[in-house]
Amino acid sequence: MGWVFWAMLSAVFAAGTALLAKVGVEKIDSNLATAIRTTVVLIFTWVIVLGSDVARLHEGLGLPAISRRSWLFLVLSGVCTGASWLCYFRALQMGPVSGVAPIDKLSVALVIVAGWVFFGESMTPAKVIGGVLVTTGALVIAFG
């Protein structure tokens, strides 16, 4: 099971996230809804970490082995995740899930460009065309 399998599974769960959140955010504050969801994610992930191959914690792969650089970027990533979720839940509260989810996926095009600019990833014609198609498709779906 390679990265494509896990990416597809992520897409399935992301779709479930949008659909379930649309119902869950009805008639409550969107920030409160995000906090509830985040708490569930926090507990769920720690249960998985602690329940899986705990011996790895003793092989230099646990918390003490994490560098300051990794901590910094993981914390910043967490801040971005939180901000994204707060905005996403507010958008779900205000708009149709069939419009919010595609606009959220514009992150695909942003990541393609950022990967090229910051990580030197190749910008192939296929990536340019794909990015344009994703962007166009998202906008057509959201506003069509």
Question: How would the blueprint of this fold be written?
Answer:
Blueprint: H1 3-24, H2 30-51, H3 68-94, H4 97-104, H5 107-119, H6 125-143
Summarize the entry for a quick read:
With about 140 residues, this protein is an all-alpha fold.
Structure, explained:
The chain is globular and about 55 Å long. It has helices spanning 3-24, 30-51, 68-94, 97-104, 107-119, 125-143. The chain has 2 domains: 3-94, no CATH class; 105-144, no CATH class. It is built from 6 helices and no strands. The chain has 144 residues and is mainly α. The mean pLDDT is 91.
What descriptors fit this protein?
144 residues; mainly alpha; 6 helices; 0% strand
Rg result: 18 Å
Mean pLDDT rating: 91
Element pattern in H and E = HHHHHH
The shape is globular
Straight-line distance between termini = 36 Å
Low-pLDDT stretches: none
**Strand residues, percent:** under 5%
What is the helix fraction of residues, given as a range?
Answer: over 70%
Profile the largest sheet.
none
